[in-house]
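Pasting as-is:
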Amino acid sequence: MSSSPVTLVFWRKESPLNINVLATDQIGDLQISTWPTILELVLTGPAVPITEFQGWMKTTNPATARFQPASRTDDYNFGLLVKSLRENRCYVTASWEIQGKGHPTTNLLFVPFAQDILCAAFPASGIPYLPTPPTEAQKQNEALWTCPERQPTRKGKAPSRWTNLDEHDAAPVPIP
């Protein structure tokens, strides 16, 4: 455990869960010293497929850390948070005002990760945009490119109804 504890406040039904957590496995500068010591989490989402999330992480390049309970007394509430995120298929964010911005910005995104939570942090700029699930049009377009009938068979050949198309596509093109 390599940071000062931060308290996450997650509202469950009518009562808040206060969870003291520590950051581990940090990549990049989280700038935890600039965070409020108490972060109120806001349910956001819905969660996106892991491939979409990985693409978002690659594009936005946040500082990241795994968060775990700071002590055994926080284990139960921490487990409730992780369970709630998984069951509701969502993620949570935390916001505060970055000095000089003049208004609060969403700076942290928390997602369930194994038995912990993964934090994507943008402490100096705010999150540029949140990951969003693919639209129906994107899903259909992706389905066109991953059509199972286009996949090679065990013998390395396309199914017969694609054979003519594949042979035509593979024909040599004369060079003038």
